[in-house]
Amino acid sequence: MQPALIFDIETVPDLAGARRVFDLEGLSDADTLQAINLKRRIESGGEFQKHFLHKIVAISAVMKTGDSVKIWSIGDVDSDEKTLIERFFEGIERFKPTLVSWNGGGFDLPVLHYRALLHGISARSYWDMGDFDRDRKWHNYISRFQFAHIDLMDVMAGYQPRAVAKLDEIAQLLGLPGKMGLSGAGVLDQYLAGDIKGIRDYCELDVINTYLVYLRFQLMRGWFTPSQYQQACDELAQVLLNPNQPHWQAYHQAWLGLNSDN
Question: Among 13, 157, 172, 175, which residue's CB has the most CB atoms within a 10 Å radius?
Fold first, then answer.
């Protein structure tokens, strides 16, 4: 079976970029943030910035290859945005995995596109739509209705915007812990406090939820038998027991607790 790379990103507003785009040079970070939040509220009613003004501060992943599964955050706490993005696309170049996300087509990948463009990052295999490898015409990461990238939110909604759901809601529907009280809204505060590790830990929990939803999806569409599905869940559970990763252990404990009566 082709390797699967389940991924998620965490972002903060790109204040340096915003100063260039909106002619805000000379403003402090705090004043720039206030200015772009006000601008965005006027435009859209909220403060969520446009995709190109999201600076990536964490990329976390689960890689499923054969009988093994790995969870990690790309780079380290000191890695800059360019390094994170380069390593992400290098992994795609090396393994040619199936990409799996929750709303990756609507958010994560467009952000990665703009930020890779900003940093001048090459990603030939990712962008190949049959120009270099003929088979990629019908199995590429860019086309919405091909499964080289499976955006679980988009697919499960039947590609209908009115049917989409939040990852946290679907995770809890399936008896999973979900975000465990965390929220992406707190990422900026963590970033300003210098808590990059906390952001990476949070991102890893999101990608664990996505992976478990993906396993259920594989069962639903007949790529897993019930026994294979259970084996994949058990395999992940063993990884989560890593004594060096207390946030994984907390997730595992919550997962057990939710299913102790089943």
Answer: 13
214 pLDDT band (50/70/90 cuts)? very high
217-226 mean pLDDT: 97
Q: Map residue 68 onto helix, strand or coil.
A: strand
d(CA 145, CA 238): 34
Question: C-alpha angle 156/185/62, rounded to 5°?
Answer: 50
Within 8 A by CB and 6+ apart from 253, the residues are none
Q: Model's pTM, two decimal places?
A: 0.96
179 vs 127: CA distance, rounded Å? 32
- Specify whether the backbone of 39 is left (phi greater than 0), alpha (psi in -120 to 50) or beta: alpha
Query: Domains of the chain, with CATH numbers?
Result: 59-257 (3.30.420)
Is residue 120 classed as helix, strand or coil in its secondary structure? coil
pLDDT digits (tens, 9 = 90+) for 77-115: 999 999 999 999 999 999 999 999 999 999 999 999 999
Query: Once rounded to an integer, what is the mean pLDDT over residues 162-189?
Result: 90
Strands 54-65 and 98-101: unpaired
106 near 112, Cβ under 8 Å? no
